[in-house]
Specification:
The complex is a heterodimer. By secondary structure, chain A is of the alpha/beta class. Chain A contains one helix and 16 strands. The radius of gyration of chain A is 24 Å and the shape is globular. The two termini of chain B are 32 Å apart. Classes of the chains: A alpha/beta, B alpha/beta.
Chain lengths: 150, 241
Amino acid sequence: MKNPPVTSNSSGPGTIVGSNVALTGTLKDDDDIAVYGMVEGEVLSEKTVTVGQTAQVKGPIRAAFVTIAGTVRGSVDASDKLEILETGKVFGSVNTKDLVIRSGAIFIGDCKMPSDEVNEAAAEPTIVANEEPKQEAQKTDDSLPQPDEE
Amino acid sequence: MYYYILESPTSRNARNVYNHLRDDLTYLGITGEITVANPARPAHELVKIAIARGYTTIVVVGGDKIINDVATLVLDRVVLGVVPVDASPEVTELFGVTQPKEALEAVKNRRISECNLTLIEPNNLIFLDVEVTSPNLVKAQFVIENKVKGQAYFNRITVSRDLEIRIHSIHKVAQPKIFGLFSGGSKDVASDSLFTPKNARLITEPSLPITCCGAQVSQTPASFRLLPDALKIITKRGTIS
């Protein structure tokens, strides 16, 4: 049995930490990183970090895309997308603009989305609330019988 | 001028190539001094002679071992060309040639590329992959970029000229008993790791030989350092289709 494959936006890993490997320190790579073993420390990539089912990461993860099928104890900062698969366990805060948590996954911690998205979401209902009553009021006026017609 | 180093022919294929070599070189206009490596005058001595005589291009005709021997000696002092005879895909893919005639054409066209080498401190260079193997699982400790410390159990570690470190292991894992009574046997679990640092240190317990093409080149513990674009090689010219 090889390291179990995990679906991700991977373009081919630059670093693979196999299931029989334990690392301590900051693991940094410009290319993809796939972890199937134990890592104690930061995991940093410009592209994709994949945490396999057998993996245990104790430390923060930062990448564009993060896919988690193992256990992560630390914050996860995924600038583009974070996906926690069925077997994934995350104990720590996450920060991403696109979050997928599959049924069966465990996530204990805070979740932050980028602030511009939050502002947009907050602003939209206010615009709708101001416009709707005006239209309704016009309709109500039109429906009233005109004195001239009578 | 070219300096040709030929491996002692060991196969009919090699003898065939050598028989036609002089004619082919004359036809292509890339003649030069032709020498044959032998136990009395091995490849490394011939390389020294070539450099001392001021040759700037050495062309090796032969298989993996002699190509590796020469490539790890010339560094950036001369340009290396090859005419692979019974060579592995690792060599033919790098130089972009598989057949001797194709290789001689490439030597004539002289497209120079650069490739990385890895230094095993203090003075051994890696051109073709080196490996550390053990039939049983052995514990290895490694330090990457002087920052990341790691340990692993392995059966085979290979290190390439680009300082790609691959750690491979296979171990048996007992399967759960069927109905709690019958043994479920065991299955093999393989694990592969890949690291691509600029420098690394490898320690094994016990110390193990580092081999290339079946010959020992160093032994653990060992420090590795990447030498970017350290070797100039002649590769096949690209074609426009």
